[in-house]
Amino acid sequence: FIVPVGETLEFNFTTPNPVEWTNGYADGGGTIVSNNELLLTGSPFKGMSNGTTLISNVSATLDEGSFYIGNGIFYNSPTSTFTVEEGATSITNGWPSLNIFNNQGLFILNKTSQFNVDSKFNNLGGDVQINSGILYLGGQESRLEGGTYNVAEGATMQIQSSVTYEGDLTGQIDGTLYQVGNLKLLEGTEASMNFTGNEGLSWSTGNLTGGGELINLGKITTIGTSGKLIYDGSTLTNESVFIKSGGYFNISNGV
Prior knowledge:
Blueprint: E1 8-11, E2 19-21, E3 24-26, E4 31-34, E5 37-40, E6 46-56, E7 59-76, E8 81-93, E9 99-103, E10 106-117, E11 120-124, E12 127-137, E13 142-151, E14 156-159, E15 163-172, E16 176-180, E17 183-184, E18 190-196, E19 201-205, E20 208-209, E21 213-216, E22 219-222, E23 228-230, E24 235-238, E25 241-244, E26 249-251
Parallel strand pairs: 1-4, 2-5, 3-6, 4-6, 5-7, 6-7, 7-8, 7-9, 8-10, 9-11, 10-12, 11-13, 12-13, 12-14, 13-15, 14-16, 15-17, 15-18, 16-19, 17-20, 18-21, 19-22, 21-24, 22-25, 23-26
């Protein structure tokens, strides 16, 4: 279906059942506002293209196949819950620029295997809850700005690409939280990590870059054989537990 640029389509159906989206694309560059539950189901591709924005104000459940963001934006609002169930495979993208998943609400993963997010994943103060499976964040230029991150025992959140951090990041890590790629903090900004639970952040590869300050209030462990650098004038302030377990750790134009 097509919503032209500058126009808005609202879902306000009076029904106890979710609106099912089984196939096809939202196109045209306009904005869709859903005030109903959405069920993203069926194996064919479904999603957005050509600069279209979809705002979910209630809930959206991806229970089968992939959801495609190709030159578009999906916005999970502060009142909405986005749930990934066992049959879902990925949030995928087709364009290098505008392929964005913004979360200000609650994002839940309920899988026994890996779920890939290839689009830019921006958590803007929202909650990320990994009940089971692996959340694999592979989208370039993603942002984690504050928010709560809860990873259950046996589950994994893997930040595979370089990510920009800012604000206060909290949560309970009983599973695994992997950083694979640069931790970027823009000059003049700071981010704090205050994770409780059995584990904290496991820093596998990448460097601390960008010129900002990362404050550790929980637990950070360097793992793997790759080296890690603090550079670009960046600062790492440790106020809790920092464990060097693998690879070299150097400071080059940083503190």
